[in-house]
Please model this.
Amino acid sequence: MKILINNSKTKEQTSFFTKCLCLYFMLMLCDIFTIAEAGTLLRFYAIGLLMIALFYLRKGSIILDKMFVLQLAYLFICFCSVFYSIDHQTSLSVFITLLLNFGLIIICQSIKFSSYEVETLKKSLVIGGVLVLFASLFFADFSEGDRLTIKILEDSADQNYINGYLMFAFSYFAYNAINRSNGKTLNFIAVFLIFLFAFATGSRGALLSLLAVFCLLLFLKVKDNKKAIIKVLFLILAALFAFQTILSILPEEVAERFSLSYIEENGTTDRMQIWEALLTRFFDDNILSILFGKGVYTSLFYNTYSDHVAHNAFIEVLIGTGVVGLTIYTSLVVSFFQKAWKSENYIFFAAFCGLMIMSMSLSLVTYKPIFNAFIIIEIAYRKYVVQKRDIPLKDIEEKN
Model:
């Protein structure tokens, strides 16, 4: 399906769709606010965004590449799983969300963006994270064991999930603090504030993800410049000092969550036991269930250990859509990693790493920041390749 696109945009021009997509990125936090039982506020915005995008598809080009096929394949197995799901209502609701998320990715793949628009979209993801910090100043809630969250009206954000909204901003500020001389102090202050936010939420998984992103960016700095190793060692020492400083100002009940004694006593807060119970039952099941799962996002109903979800996105996908679905999903994740790296999009490569590390302890199957990472990585990759090789995108995809 091919349609020519209007490529007459100047450097400073942004389309109406780009502006709406920027707003979508900046409003990540709205994904926690529900409207009755119909879904979150951001879901309704996504529906509107898709309707707006239909006007731009007349000028775009849908390319039937490997990524497009993988996305359709994953959506197809999720759709089929609704019919044999052990909980049809849950699987149907999650499938609709996945359909909207992947639909937005496919549309963004098919619309060309100018270099200025791509940079604007990247900045909007950073702004989205900064807005979460500002929201925490006005809507902070400490009612759950002194752990920070954001609560507006009756809706509150999960302490673990909320940190993912900051991942793009953290990677951006950390990258600038490590690699740029201008504004280094302000960037380090921003990094410190986001670390402080993660500590205040009491989320050890989020803290680990942020540390991984920071260490990855330090590694990339040393890889390109061996002389920077002294600076890196200094930064590590400063981080250790900051760690102790932050712990000293936190409420005792929150600070103890990061102590060795608490970790030894509570471990992974039953996550290992949940994973073992789910995987043991799954691989003892019949061959059809192993291949195609029990219905998308049904680990809660399949769990014999406790009334919790898998707390691991990959195990969640495995239980929901089987080995076939997990293979497709993993292929998608690997492909996005490759595209972020090949396009030298290191800030969002690192942020994506952080989100995937969070996925190891959380069932982030429909998590908006991950799908936002998919979108920006794909958009940036397509723009980078066209500029780098100066040949039509269709020819590039055919070679790949």
Remarks:
- The chain has 19 helices and three strands.
- The CA atoms of residues 314 and 330 lie 8 Å apart.
- The mean pLDDT is 86.
- The radius of gyration is 21 Å.
